[in-house]
Amino acid sequence: MRIIFNKVSKNFGKNAPALDETSFEINEGEFVFLVGSSGAGKTTVLRLIIQDLIPTSGKIEIEKFVISKKNHVDTAKLRRKIGMVFQDFKILYNRTTFENVAIALEILGKKSDEISKKVHEVLHLVGLSDKANFFPIQLSAGELQRASIARAIVGGPKILLADEPTGNLDPTTSWEIMKILREINDLGTTVIMATHNADIVNSLNKRVITIKKGKVVKDEKTGKYQ
Amino acid sequence: MSLFNHAWKHIRRSPYQAFAAIATMTLMFIITGLFTVISFGSMILLNYFEQKPQIIVFFNDTKKEEDIKKLQDKLLNMDKVSTVKFVSKDEALAIYKEQFKKDPMLLEMVSADILPASIEVSAKKIEYLPELATTLKNEPDIIETVFPEDVVNLLMSWIGTIRKIGLGVVVFLAIVSLFTVFTVVSMKIALKKEEVEIIQLVGGSKGYVRGPFILEGIIYGIFGAIIGWGVNVIIILSSTPILSSVFTGIPLFPVTTIFYGALLGGMLILGTILGSLASFLALNRYLK
């Protein structure tokens, strides 16, 4: 799934542009870092992609979905094609790891046999096979983030958005998470990751889009964190 | 997990709120059921009085049978008269003996001679009664005209009052139930705000998010309806022996299975509407 931002602006109030006529394209299967200081507009880009926000002007094309001020798409259908990992995990604390991951398949109306099979597969992929029946309170921060990734990828999305997924993690755990994200990207999923972590960005030699005050100031195929 | 399982989980995890919602619904359905039963019973009672001979005219012994026959024909030719039945002195004695067969003292003292011949006149509509009674009172050789005007008027007045009070109470209780379920579902939405947000973020459709809450309201309504109906059935069955002796001859008892079925059906429909409406209102208010 190709993502096209065409002169997209997002204003919060009159003099608060979070994004200012931003244009870029992300091709299928790419691994892209969105970097920039806090408030630069990285999270706004991700929220616009999942239609958690509507552009003030311009349009966003994601395959057949065209999001603009005048054209809202079916949010649920769009989000089912996109997985998202959050800095604060957004895990349900009254459900087990298995149930947290299964929810992404339940909303697709999958049968319990299929749900069980796929959830165990992704839990194995993220290294949480032995924690399937654990409640979130019994998991470490790294494990919670892995569970969050498992939930994001279990439905087989074409795009995976990660909003500072290593923000709350120690360096070792952060690298474990990056290893999982790279593996997911190697399987053909487009990964867009907003981050502040210069070490990770500089080590991976992937495309880097630098955003400053809501504008794309740099877009390099194998960029560095600046 | 199915929609029902989700809704059932919501209920199981907050049993006290669920109890309050079901209890209020049950109370509403008990009262609704009782007023429905009383209302239908009154209608049958009124219908019975409408069907039965409503004016009885007793004749002097001087009145000849052919004159009575003429009066009978005259009445039958009137549009407002449904039936006219002649009761001879002998037939009157037979009726008397049947009524007082357990009291031989009363039977010994009575013979056919002292009982008057009569006609029983039934009107097509209850409103025609006063006019017919006036006409018959003017006939010659009449001892007495028995006209249950007061009973019918009283009955009609009762039915009107019962219906008005019943409707008022039921509407009030329905509103109380609606707001109770609304409050319970609103609390659940507030408690599950984060869960709902996460489900929406991972692609949960409007139906997937709202469905369990709507179903929860419907479950409260259905449970309330079934329990309320059950209590009504118990009340009717336990009071049948006493009431059937009070209303002898009137086709009120035993209450038919069709009536029980219709009552349950009506209550289930009302419960479903009230429960879903309350949940719908709560979702519109707290889940934008």
TrEMBL record, chain B:
It is a multi-pass membrane protein. Residues 169-288 form the ABC3 transporter permease C-terminal domain. GO terms for biological process: cell division. The chain crosses the membrane at residues 21-49, 165-185, 218-238, 258-283. It comes from Candidatus Gottesmanbacteria bacterium GW2011_GWA1_34_13. The keyword Cell membrane applies. GO terms for cellular component: plasma membrane. Residues 54-142 form the FtsX extracellular domain. This is Cell division protein FtsX. Its main location: membrane. It is found in: Cell membrane.
